[in-house]
Write a structure and sequence with these properties.
There is one protein chain. The relative contact order is 0.13. The longest helix is centred in the middle third of the chain and has 18 residues, at about 195-210. The strands form three sheets. The protein has a seven-stranded parallel β-sheet, with helices on both faces. Strands 10-9-8-11 form a four-stranded parallel β-sheet. Strands 12-13 form a two-stranded parallel sheet. Helix 4 links the parallel strand 4 (about 80-85) and strand 5. It is built from 16 helices and 13 strands. It has about 350 residues and is of the alpha/beta class.
């Protein structure tokens, strides 16, 4: 709460921070840039050392300790759920209940609540949908990152002030693409691909690397999930020997390392949403693979060709798309238009903090 004698207000920022996921780190960086001076910050995180690197002036709260986070709600003047899709049950029902409890606790203690840069869902269970419908109207305001989330919130909480804009990570400064070096794949483990599906993708990637005579960089966006993917596929005998010889895994520790890697790419093939966004901010050539509608929506908006993982064509068709996309940079005006639209999240935050 407000520190006596100073007038400094305290904000509690809650998200999937400190979990070695560069997409969530990027969301936190954008959010921190948009909070003006004069606020004291409490930030939930699992890895406190990683949080200090991102926000050295903030106080960390153990994200995996519900009691600690609920206590932090009482110490704060406002609660901000910052970026991502926190109100969803695809991770687990327990995760959804965690965030709903924070909202309810903040409302009981008369703290304003902002859902900033959020996606609403997936909500696969009837119980999940019922719970969110009860709790969503308790929030003070919301900025959504996609049309379906906005429309659902208007049905479930018609009085909730809400708006929609592209994902907040689009507001990071654009970079310059130099190209000419590597193929970069930002792939993740997924239940949508069995061995046959992976074989199709890897065959196309092998042929692409051969035709471009380019090394392949496996950029592990999520340290724990993605960094082991190449070795796991190799152990299953799915990676051709020629592709294995060209491949190396990069585990970036910062968003800057991501930019440094994709700036030199002849083609980036992302699966993860924020890998797509960060790579597109460099203007680099891209072709996306979608495991989720949010990836498709971002690819369409940014003029990135894409394929659905659960409806892959032949390896020859995939190769044809990738060859057409290689060495063809993005239109910088398109990127700047998206960045301008994404600034609406910042305006919503400004209005919230002025209350």
């Amino acid at each position: 709460m407000t520190v006596a004698g100073t007038g400094t207000r305290t904000l509690l920022l809650c998200g999937y921070y400190g979990e070695n996921n560069l997409g969530d780190d990027a969301l936190l960086l954008v959010l921190l840039q948009q909070i003006p001076a004069g606020f004291s910050l409490l930030i939930t995180a699992n890895d406190q050392e990683a949080l200090r690197a991102l926000a050295p002036m903030a106080d960390g709260v153990a994200r995996r300790s519900l009691g600690s986070v609920l206590a932090a709600v009482g110490r704060a003047d406002a609660l901000i759920l910052g970026g991502g899709s926190l109100l969803q049950d695809s991770t687990s029902l327990r995760s959804l209940i965690y965030y709903l409890l924070l909202i309810v606790t903040a409302r009981i203690q008369r703290r304003p609540i902002l859902l900033w840069g959020q996606g609403l869902g997936p909500l696969n269970r009837p119980t999940s949908r019922w719970l969110v419908r009860q709790v969503l109207p308790l929030c003070t305001a919301a900025s959504w990152r996609d049309r379906s989330s906005l429309e659902r919130s208007r049905r479930w909480a018609p009085r909730l002030p809400a708006q929609m804009a592209p994902d907040p990570v689009w507001q990071m400064p654009p970079q310059s693409w130099s190209g000419g070096v590597s193929i970069v794949v930002c792939w993740r483990p997924t239940s949508l691909l069995d061995d046959s599906g992976w074989s199709v993708l890897l065959s196309a990637l092998d042929d692409l690397a051969e035709q471009l005579q380019a090394p392949v960089r496996w950029l592990a966006f999520h340290q724990h999930q993605d960094a082991v993917l190449f070795d796991a596929l190799k152990e299953r005998g799915l990676i051709p020997a020629s592709l294995a010889a060209r491949s190396s895994t990069i585990v970036p520790r910062s968003v800057e390392t991501v930019f440094a890697t994709v700036r030199k790419a002849r083609l980036v093939v992302p699966m993860r949403l924020h890998a797509l966004i960060l790579a597109r901010l460099t203007g680099c050539p891209m072709a996306a693979l979608s495991y989720d509608p949010k990836v498709e929506a971002a690819a369409e908006m940014a003029d990135v060709p894409w394929l659905k993982l659960d409806k892959l064509p032949t390896a020859a068709s995939i190769l044809s798309q990738w060859l057409a996309a290689a060495d063809a940079p993005a239109d910088p005006q398109t990127i700047e238009q998206i960045r301008t639209q994404a600034s609406a999240h910042g305006r919503m935050l400004e209005q919230f903090l002025q209350r």
